[in-house]
C-alpha cells in the first residue's frame, strides 16, 4: 500500500543529516587539525566531505518534484510558480553575497571597497541558481526530456573541458588555474570576485554550475519516481538501489577518463554522487517511511526543516561573535568564539580531537535552538 503523506520523513532526515554535516565540516576548531574524512580532496578524488554539497543539491531536486508536482499539471500556474522560484533563487543568491561581504570588523569596513572585492560565486549562490533553473526545467519538460537534458549537460561539459583549448594556455586541461572554467571565471568575474583562497579559480564557478544543475535534475527524477502512487514501495526501493548502483559504477568508469572532482564538478562526479545520494535516500525511505523505524530521526529532522536557515546563521554567527573581543591572560585580545575554543578545548584534548569536539559542540548548540523552533512549529522558509 502506498504511503499517503506527501512529505517524506526520510527526505527531511536526509536533508537534516546533510546540512548538519555541512556545518560540521565548515566549523572545525582549527583548520590546521582536521581528520582526513572531514577534509575535501586536494583535487581529484572524493572524500565523505565532498559528498555533502552534491547531496544537498540532489535533495533540492527531490524537493522540487514534491513541492511543484501539482503546479506542473496546471500550465496556467507555471508563470506564477517560476516567478516564485526566481524570488527564492534571488534570496538565496543574495544571502550568499551577504555572507561574502559581511565584515569581520565594522571599524575598518568600507562598503564600496567590499563591493569591489566581494566573492560572487558561493554555496548559497549555487543553490539559488540550481533551484531556479531546475524548477523551470521541471515545469516545462517531461521526465524523459529531463533525463535527456542531464545527458546533454554532462556530455557537453565533458567535451568543453576535455577538447576546447584554453585561451592563453593553448590546450585543454583539468588543472586548477589553467582549465577552461578557471579562465572563464577570471575573464567574466575577474580575480577580485573569486574565491579569496585562490583568486585565480573558484570551486563554485560559472561553468561548473552547468553540471551542478544536472545534479539537481537527477534529484528531480528520483523525486518524481518516489511520488508515483502506482508503484509498490518495495519496487521503488529495488529500482532506486539499482539506478543508484549503476550511476555510481558509471561515474567510476568515467573517472578513468574524466576524473571525479568536486571543484570542477565533473560529469563523473555528478553520476558518482547522484548514485550514492539515490542509494542513501532509498535506504532511508525503506527504513523510515516504509518500515516506520523513525525514533532515531528526530535530531536530523529538526535540522532538516530549517536547513537553509541554520546553514546561513552558522556562517554568520562566528563573525558576529568574533567581533566581541576578550582580553587573554597574555594581554592579547581574541574574538569571543576563538577565546571559547582556546579556553575549553585544546587544554583537554589532543589538537585534532579538540578541533572535532568544538565542531560537534557547534552542531549541538544549533540543535538546541532548532529543537525549540521545531517544538514551536517555527519554520523559516527562504
Would you kindly provide a written description of the structure presented here, covering whatever features stand out?
Helix 6 (123-140) packs across helix 9. 41% of the residues are buried. Strand 1 (325-327) and strand 2 (333-335) form a beta hairpin. The protein has 2 domains: 1-38 and 294-382, no CATH class; 40-290, no CATH class. The two termini are 34 Å apart. Mean pLDDT is 92; it is low at 1-5. It is mostly helical and 382 residues long. It has a two-stranded antiparallel ribbon with strand order 1-2. It is globular, with a radius of gyration of 21 Å. The protein is built from 15 helices and 2 strands. The protein has helices spanning 9-26, 52-67, 69-72, 78-101, 111-117, 123-140, 143-163, 180-188, 209-227, 233-255, 267-290, 298-304, 307-321, 336-344, 351-375; strands at 325-327, 333-335.
Largest sheet: 2 strands, antiparallel
Strand line-up of the largest beta sheet: 1-2
In whole angstroms, how far apart are the ends?
Answer: 34 Å
Q: Approximately how much helix is present in the residues? A: 55-70%
Tally the beta strands: 2
Uncertain residue ranges: 1-5
Global mean pLDDT: 92
In terms of DSSP E residues, the strand content is under 5%
Rg estimate, integer Å: 21 Å
Oligomer: single chain
Query: What is the number of independent domains?
Result: 2
Shape: globular
Helical region count?
A: 15
- Given helix and strand content, the structural type is mainly alpha
The helix/strand series, from N terminus to C terminus, equals HHHHHHHHHHHHHEEHH
Amino acid at each position: 500500500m502506498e504511503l499517503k503523506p506527501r512529505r517524506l520523513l526520510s527526505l527531511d532526515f536526509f536533508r537534516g543529516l546533510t546540512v548538519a554535516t555541512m556545518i560540521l565540516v565548515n566549523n572545525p576548531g582549527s583548520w590546521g587539525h582536521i581528520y582526513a574524512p572531514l577534509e575535501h580532496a586536494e583535487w581529484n578524488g572524493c572524500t565523505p566531505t565532498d559528498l555533502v554539497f552534491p547531496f544537498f543539491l540532489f535533495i533540492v531536486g527531490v524537493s522540487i518534484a514534491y513541492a511543484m508536482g501539482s503546479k506542473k499539471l496546471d500550465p496556467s500556474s507555471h508563470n506564477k510558480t517560476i516567478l516564485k522560484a526566481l524570488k527564492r533563487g534571488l534570496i538565496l543568491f543574495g544571502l550568499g553575497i551577504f555572507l561574502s561581504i559581511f565584515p569581520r570588523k565594522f571599524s575598518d569596513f568600507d562598503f564600496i571597497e567590499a563591493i569591489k572585492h566581494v566573492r560572487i560565486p558561493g554555496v548559497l549562490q549555487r543553490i539559488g541558481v540550481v533551484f531556479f533553473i531546475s524548477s523551470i526545467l521541471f515545469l516545462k519538460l517531461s521526465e524523459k526530456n529531463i533525463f535527456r537534458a542531464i545527458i546533454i549537460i554532462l556530455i557537453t561539459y565533458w567535451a568543453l573541458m576535455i577538447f576546447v583549448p584554453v585561451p592563453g594556455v593553448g590546450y585543454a586541461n583539468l588543472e586548477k588555474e589553467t582549465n577552461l572554467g578557471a579562465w572563464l571565471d577570471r575573464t567574466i568575474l575577474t580575480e577580485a570576485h573569486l574565491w579569496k583562497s585562490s583568486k585565480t579559480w573558484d570551486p563554485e564557478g560559472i561553468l561548473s554550475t552547468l553540471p551542478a544543475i544536472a545534479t539537481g535534475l537527477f534529484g528531480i527524477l528520483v523525486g518524481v519516481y518516489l511520488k508515483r502512487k502506482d508503484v509498490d514501495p518495495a519496487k521503488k526501493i529495488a529500482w532506486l538501489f539499482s539506478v543508484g548502483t549503476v550511476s555510481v559504477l558509471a561515474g567510476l568508469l568515467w573517472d578513468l577518463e574524466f576524473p571525479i572532482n568536486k571543484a570542477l564538478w565533473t560529469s563523473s562526479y555528478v553520476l558518482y554522487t547522484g548514485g550514492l545520494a539515490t542509494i542513501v535516500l532509498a535506504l532511508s525511505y525503506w527504513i523510515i517511511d516504509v518500515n516506520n523505524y523513525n525514533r532515531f530521526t528526530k535530531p536530523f529532522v529538526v535540522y532538516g526543516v530549517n536547513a537553509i536557515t541554520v546553514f546561513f546563521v552558522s556562517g554568520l554567527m562566528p563573525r558576529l561573535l568574533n567581533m566581541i573581543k576578550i582580553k587573554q591572560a597574555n594581554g592579547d585580545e581574541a574574538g569571543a568564539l576563538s577565546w571559547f575554543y582556546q579556553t575549553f578545548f585544546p587544554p583537554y584534548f589532543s589538537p585534532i580531537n579538540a578541533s572535532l569536539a568544538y565542531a560537534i559542540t557547534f552542531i549541538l548548540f544549533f540543535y538546541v535552538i532548532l529543537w525549540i523552533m521545531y517544538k514551536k512549529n517555527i519554520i523559516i522558509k527562504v
